[in-house]
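Q: How would the C-alpha cells look for this protein?
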Amino acid sequence: MTAPFDWTPDAHELADLELLLSGAFQPLTGFLNSADAHAVEDHGMLADGTPWPAPVSLTLPGDHPAAAGDRITLRDPEGAALAVLTVTERVGTSVAGPVEALDEPEHGPFARLRRTPAEIRKELADREVLAVTMRGPLDDLEEIRATAEELDAAILLLPLAFGEGGPAVVRAALKARDRLPEGTLVAVVPLAPRQDPSIDLELREHVAEAYGATEHLAGPEPVTLPGPPHRRGLVVFFTGLSGSGKSTVARGLRDTLAERGSRTVTYLDGDVVRRLLSAGLSFSREDRDLNIRRIGFVAAEAARHGGLAICAPIAPYAATRDEVRAMVEAVGADFLLVHVATPLAECERRDRKGLYAKARAGLIPEFTGVSDPYEEPDDADLVIDTTSISVERAVQQVLDPLIQGGWVR
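A: Here is the predicted structure in C-alpha cell form.
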C-alpha cells in the first residue's frame, strides 16, 4: 500500500536513514521515539539499556499532517522513494518509527562503493577484520599494516563520506587502498559527524562493529585551512520590505563589482526570479518560502565554486532566511545578510509599483508589511536605511565590509 504522505529529510537525516536501512546502525531499525532519545542523551543507552551514543531523529514541519499510525514515503532530493516510515509516535515536530527500504540510495558520492555490512561480512567470511574509519587522509599507513599483520586481519577502509568533503574522503580511501596489502576493501559510509568528538568516535565504533570489525582504528580528523576570502564563495543576501530600496542597492553593488572586475557575480533579483524560476507560484506563505529556497539554492550553487551571488528578495520569514544561510554554508561558502531597514511609512510613501495602495484596498491579500508580517532579522550582518541617503552611499555601505572582510579586492 502506498504511503499517503511524502517527505524529503535533510542531508543529516538522509545519511542516518541510509545507515538505518543498510544495517550499519544496528540494532536500530528506525528513528528513535522520545523515551529512547532521552535515554540516549542522558545515559548513552536506549530505554531498554542497549548502549547507543547518539540520537537518531527525524523532524517534520509543524504543519505537516502526519500522525501516529500514518505512513510517510521518505524521498531523496531528486524525488526517488527510499523508504516508508510507519509513524509510531509524534511529539511536536519529531516523529519516530521503523523504516522499510523501497530502493537503493543513489544521491550520494560513489554509489557503487556504498556496500552494506551484510555484503562485507559475507565477502570476508570468518576473517579477522581491521576497520579504519576515515574523515580525511590517513597519515600513517604503516600502523595500519602492522596492526593488520599482528591480527592476521583483512583491512577494511570505511570513508565517512558526508557533505561537500565526501568525494575527497572517498578518493583518499581509494588512494590508501592502493598502497595497502592486496585484498584491502573500501566501503563508503555516509555517517554525518556529531558535534561532540567523543560521541562521534563512539558512533564510528558502532558502525565498524556492524561491518564485522575485530579491531577499529579511527583515522585523524582532517585539518582544513580556508582559502583567502577573495577566493571563497559568497552570497550577499538583501532582505527588506517592498520599496525599501534593496533591489536598487543590490543592482548598484552588482554594477560596482562588475566595474572592479575582481569577482564573478551572479545577480538574483526577487521580481526577476518570480517571473522565471518561480513562475506560477502564488504569494501564500508556502509558495513564498519555496521561492526563497529556490533563490537560495541557485545562489549556493553559484558560490559553491567560488562565485559571488547577490540576492534581493523580500524574504520576510526568519526561518527561511536561516535555511538559505545553511544551504550556503553547507557548500563551504560565506553568507552576508543585509537588512535594508527602511521604515514601512517610507516604503509606502514611495510605492513605485502601486502595491501598497492595492494592498490597503484589499486587492492584494497577504501583502508583507500590510496584511502579512515581516520578521525583522536579529542576525543581520549589516543594517542600512535608504530613507535619507543616496544610492551611491548605500552601495558603499555594503561594499566597505566586503573589502574589509577580504571578499573583494
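The chain has a mean pLDDT of 92.

Residues 285-304 form the longest helix (20 residues).

Upvote if useful.
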